[in-house]
UniProtKB/TrEMBL annotation:
<dbReference type="InterPro" id="IPR032466">
    <property type="entry name" value="Metal_Hydrolase"/>
</dbReference>
<dbReference type="InterPro" id="IPR032465">
    <property type="entry name" value="ACMSD"/>
</dbReference>
<keyword id="KW-0456">Lyase</keyword>
<dbReference type="InterPro" id="IPR006680">
    <property type="entry name" value="Amidohydro-rel"/>
</dbReference>
<dbReference type="Pfam" id="PF04909">
    <property type="entry name" value="Amidohydro_2"/>
</dbReference>
<feature type="domain" description="Amidohydrolase-related">
    <location>
        <begin position="94"/>
        <end position="299"/>
    </location>
</feature>
<protein>
    <submittedName>
        <fullName>Amidohydrolase</fullName>
    </submittedName>
</protein>
């Protein structure tokens, strides 16, 4: 069984975080008895920093027990650091990527890795993606744009050029939605997270990115958010309005089949719908391990599709 959506913080990254806590406003807080301390970076998106996030033996033993044979391991979104000066983002991204290269190389039968990139500087992001892939990583995990600039904007063209040339996996991973209407009862995570993926996926689709950079393998988190469910509306808009079809050569439904999706959905009917819409070969097993809201172990899907996606 494979897992395409999993997170880890290598030891060297954690050490950097402790050394640079004041630069990134990192705090550790013991919130409840029996829980690990919660880590918060820059007052955003606190989470329980379980041992499985940073202890390689715990992480690998959990994979083994769950029957996961190969994992694509990603950095955690809390450490994308897009809102900091570029030098700082590059410094941590570079370290994170090198740490993941070393760890995945030492466990190459069990692990592949994705880089983190400084989206706050697309040229630097392109350079780091190129370097990371030359060192053996399979692509990168990135947030859904930066400071309101969507990923289809020409601003990000340098990154897409490299992703296309290198046939990179580009894993679009949401960040927390900051809409003031949903700042309670975990709503930023419950619906804000899939909403961010929905916005980003549709922007990439309508922006023609799938035609401009056809060799980049774009993976959408959490089953593509709400996007696949609105296929009828998208198709109808495509028929009605020139603005919808201006960058497209076919219906939105056809383009939805050109993304890949993880199956972190917790619901058989939802998963079945997605597989029927885009094809079973486009829906890959993921877990979001070791975050609280994980599907563990991941629901298995076709091994051949996973191998093709990974280029194994
Ligand atoms: Zn995740």
């Amino acid at each position: 069984m494979f897992d395409v959506h999993s997170h880890f913080v290598p030891e060297g990254v954690l050490a950097w975080l402790k050394d640079n806590a004041s630069r990134v406003n990192a705090t550790w807080e013991q919130r409840a008895v029996g829980k690990e301390p919660f880590l918060t970076i820059n007052q955003k998106w606190s989470f329980e920093l379980k041992q499985a996030f940073y202890q390689a033996d715990v992480y690998l033993e959990d994979q083994r027990k769950a029957g996961v044979a190969h994992t694509i391991v990603s950095p955690i979104p809390q450490l994308f650091l897009y809102d900091f000066p570029v030098e700082l983002t590059v410094e941590l991204s570079d370290l994170y990527n090198h740490e993941l290269v070393a760890w995945t190389k030492a466990n190459s039968d069990k692990l592949s890795g994705l880089a983190t990139l400084p989206l706050n500087d697309p040229d630097a992001a392109a350079r780091l993606l190129d370097e990371a892939m030359s060192n053996g990583l399979k692509g990168a995990i990135i947030g859904p744009g930066h400071q309101g600039v969507p990923l289809s904007d020409d601003h990000f063209a340098p990154l897409w050029e490299v992703a296309n040339d290198k046939r990179a996996i580009i894993f679009i991973h949401p960040l927390l939605n900051e809409d003031p209407r949903i700042q309670r009862k975990m709503m930023p995570n419950l619906i804000g997270v899939p909403w961010e993926t929905t916005i980003c996926g549709l922007d990439l689709l309508l922006g023609g990115i799938l035609d401009k950079y056809p060799k980049a393998k774009i993976l959408l988190a959490h089953g593509g958010g709400f996007l696949p469910y609105q296929v009828g509306r998208l198709n109808q808009g495509y028929q009605m309005w020139p603005a919808v079809k201006s960058s497209l050569n076919d219906t939105p439904e056809t383009y939805l089949k050109r993304f890949w999706y993880d199956n972190v959905l917790w619901h058989e009917d939802a998963l079945g719908y997605l597989q029927k819409l885009v094809g079973t070969d486009r829906v890959l097993p993921g877990s979001d391990y070791p975050f609280d809201l994980k599907t563990w172990p991941p629901a298995p899907t076709s091994e051949a599709s996973c191998r093709a996606f990974l280029g194994l």
